Amino acid sequence: MLHSKGIICIQSQRSHSLTLHSSRLPCYDVVRLPSRLCMRTNKPPTWQFGDVYGLDPELLGMVPRPVCAVLLLFPVTDKYEAFKQEEEEKLKGQQQEVSPDVYFIKQTIGNACGTIGLIHAVANNQAHLEFESDSPLKKFIEQTSKMTAAERAAFLEKDESIRVTHESSAQEGQTEAPSLDEKVNLHFIAFVNVGGQLYELDGRKPFPIVHGKTSEDRFLEDAAEVCKVFMARDPQELRFTIIALSKD
């Protein structure tokens, strides 16, 4: 078991490029935060982020199990924005049953969708993951556990340990990273299994989206089905990336 002197024992089995087809990553932090915030020891990590190379059963079968979270990078197009607005209006008139155990945070920091996705993935899987006693992320989650999504976002804005790491990691790499205020058209969201329900967690949305029942054994396949819907919405787009947080 690897304990981290940074945030959590997660390492990334990936190069600079994150591609299901071919795309560059605007939210650079999701690639570098795990390795930057983890002071590695000579022990292997227990949970790792790894590429999902495709959504066919054979390719999904290559992903180590169990999987506790899935991150999807996708293009924010006019079609998606129209769908997002319609979805929000529809769900506001319905009564989604969202478990109180779901940890959800709004995104109010520019170009921080990777950080928000990482927080969503980790905060909703604390039973699986081990933290160092002085982990900044562990402390952040504990301090914000009783807060609303908006209050957590405001708290994150003032959290120096996470903010500084996000900004420094976002400015590293082989390609020029965007500033925190620069508009980008790619976005990260997270999928998690909480209480046997599949949740989509997007800091740009006002609330979690419930996608129905799931299980530990079926979670990756169920999340993949939702990812297919994102892709079908923009069939001409190739800029989709899927990352799974799985046990090595």
TrEMBL record:
Oligomer and partners: Preferentially binds diubiquitin; the interaction does not hydrolyze diubiquitin but, in vitro, inhibits the hydrolyzing activity on other substrates.
Primary localisation category: cytoplasm
Enzyme class: hydrolase
Catalytic residues (positions): 113 (nucleophile), 187 (proton donor)
Record's protein name: Ubiquitin carboxyl-terminal hydrolase
UniProt KW keywords: Cytoplasm, Hydrolase, Phosphoprotein, Protease, Thiol protease, Ubl conjugation pathway
InterPro entries xrefs: Papain-like_cys_pep_sf, Peptidase_C12_UCH, Peptidase_C12_UCH_sf, UCH_AS
Subcellular location: Cytoplasm
Residue ranges of every copy of the UCH catalytic domain listed in the record: 16-247
Cross-referenced Pfam families: Peptidase_C12 (PF01088)
GO biological process, one term: protein deubiquitination
Family: Belongs to the peptidase C12 family.
Enzymatic reactions: Thiol-dependent hydrolysis of ester, thioester, amide, peptide and isopeptide bonds formed by the C-terminal Gly of ubiquitin (a 76-residue protein attached to proteins as an intracellular targeting signal)
Lineage: Eukaryota, Metazoa, Chordata, Craniata, Vertebrata
Site features described as Transition state stabilizer, chain residue numbers: 107
EC number(s) from the headed UniProt entry: 3.4.19.12
GO cellular component, one term: cytoplasm
